[in-house]
C-alpha cells in the first residue's frame, strides 16, 4: 500500500473516532529540554506511570528517533468525551481519573492507528499519546515503595498497548501544533489552582510516526 492510500485510511479511522489526522514532517516537530523539566517540576504524575519520566527516553533520544522518519501525523482530539460543561469545584484532587475517558480515547485511538499502519507494511509505525496512562487504576510505580528502575516495565499489565506521550519525551506540543495552524491553548484553571479547569473545550494531541 502506498503512503497516500494509507493516509486516506488513517484519516477515515481518525474521523470515525471523532479525531482528525494532519501530516507533518518529523523535522518540523519541536523538541525542548524545558519540556522534560516541566514534567519533573510541575506534574503530579511524575514518576507514577511507566509511560512517563523517568521511565521513558528523553529529548536527546527523541531527536535521534525523529531523524529515522520522513512521514508523521499529528492527531487532534477536541474536547472531553461526554462533557459539554463542567464545574471546576467538582473536579477531584485526582484529576487523572476524572479525565479517564479522554485519556483512554486518545491512547486507544493512537494504538489502533499504529497497528493499522504496521499491518499494512509500515513496520516502523510508532504512536505517542497524551497524558499519563490510565489503563490500570494504579500503575506499577504507584504500587511499589521505594526507588524502582525501568526493569519493572516487564510487570506492565498492558505492555502491548501502552505508549508514551509526546510531552513525556521532550516534544514541545504547543510549538509543534501552532506551526501547523492547529489550536492549543493553556487551559484556564479557577484561581490558578492546578487541575481545576474552567471548561471542557480543550484540545489534546497524539503523534504517529510512520516511515
Structure notes:
There is one protein chain. This protein starts with a helix and ends with a strand. By secondary structure, it is of the alpha+beta class. It is built from seven helices and four strands, in the order αβααβααβααβ. Strands 1-2-4-3 form a four-stranded antiparallel sheet. It has one domain (3-209).
Provide a brief overview of the structure.
InterPro entries: DUF2284_metal-binding. With 211 residues, the chain is α+β, with helices and mostly antiparallel strands.
Layout: helices, strands, pairs:
Blueprint: H1 3-16, E1 20-24, H2 33-40, H3 59-66, E2 72-78, H4 95-98, H5 100-119, E3 126-128, H6 140-143, H7 173-178, E4 203-209
Antiparallel strand pairs: 1-2, 2-4, 3-4
Pfam families: DUF2284
Organism: Methanooceanicella nereidis
Protein name: Metal-binding protein
* Strand ordering within the main sheet: 1-2-4-3
Major sheet description: 4 strands, antiparallel
Q: Indicate how many domains the architecture comprises.
A: 1
**H/E topology pattern:** HEHHEHHEHHE
Give the overall pLDDT as a whole number.
94
Molecular shape: globular
| Intertermini distance | 13 Å
What proportion strand?
Answer: 5-15%
Estimate percent helicity: 25-40%
The oligomerization state is single chain
Low-confidence region ranges: none
Spatial extent as radius of gyration: 17 Å
SS-based class:
alpha+beta
State the helix count: 7
Q: Count every beta strand, where a strand is a DSSP E run of 2 or more residues.
A: 4
